[in-house]
């Protein structure tokens, strides 16, 4: 039908003529209350945002020659973050001559990953990037 006839029909029903598919040949239109449609769409989007869960990223910093008690404290913090649903970024910063011994960093990261294995999965293995070694852990999926 012609656009003028459709506009007259919409005006007679006190509604709006809305283009659904303007790129189609001929364009597809619908007679509806546009204000009500926008309100319901905003309501659906708000409901979807409410049900959405934002995943937090937490960081644990280790040192190359970390002592047992400090290691266990950092481990407990990481477990607490993982149980809370956050992802954990474990990092080691190499200072000075420590750069000559990246294998010690890999060993510390491996030890940390094994200690937290029952609470997390390694999302990204330890990798040396400049002076930092990074590893990413994600909480184990619950069944």
The overall pLDDT average reads 89
SSE series: HEEHEHEHEE
Provide the low-confidence segments as ranges: none
The shape, in one word, is elongated
Report, as a whole number of angstroms, the end-to-end distance: 55 Å
Detailed description of the structure:
Helix content is 41%, strand content 29%. With 143 residues, it is α+β, with helices and mostly antiparallel strands. It has two domains: 49 residues, Ubiquitin-like (UB roll) (Roll), CATH 3.10.20.80; 83 residues, Translation initiation factor 3 (IF-3), C-terminal domain (Translation Initiation Factor IF3, 2-Layer Sandwich). The strands form two sheets. It has a four-stranded mixed β-sheet with strand order 3-4-6-5, covered by helices on one side. A two-stranded antiparallel ribbon has the order 1-2. 12% of the residues are buried.
Kindly list the characteristics that best describe this protein.
Ubiquitin-like (UB roll), Translation Initiation Factor IF3, 143 residues, 4 helices, two-stranded antiparallel ribbon, 4-stranded mixed beta sheet, 41% helix, alpha+beta
Topology, pairings included?
Layout lengths: L2 H10 L3 E6 L6 E5 L1 H18 L5 E6 L5 H16 L3 E7 L8 H14 L4 E10 L2 E8 L4
Parallel strand pairs: 3-4
Antiparallel strand pairs: 1-2, 4-6, 5-6
Tell me briefly what this model is:
It is built from 4 helices and 6 strands.
């Amino acid at each position: 039908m012609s656009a003028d006839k459709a506009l007259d029909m919409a005006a007679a029903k006190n509604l709006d003529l809305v283009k659904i598919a303007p790129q189609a040949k001929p364009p597809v239109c619908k007679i509806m209350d546009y204000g009500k449609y926008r309100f319901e769409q905003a309501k659906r989007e708000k409901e979807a945002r409410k049900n959405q869960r934002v995943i937090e990223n937490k960081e644990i910093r280790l040192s190359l020659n970390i002592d047992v008690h400090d290691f266990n404290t950092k481990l407990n913090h990481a477990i607490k973050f993982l149980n809370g649903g956050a992802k954990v970024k474990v990092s080691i910063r190499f200072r000075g001559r420590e750069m000559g011994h990246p294998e010690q960093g890999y060993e510390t990261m491996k030890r940390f990953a094994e200690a937290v294995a029952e609470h997390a999965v390694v999302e990204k293995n330890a990798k040396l990037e400049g002076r930092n070694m990074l590893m990413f852990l994600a909480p184990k999926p619950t069944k």
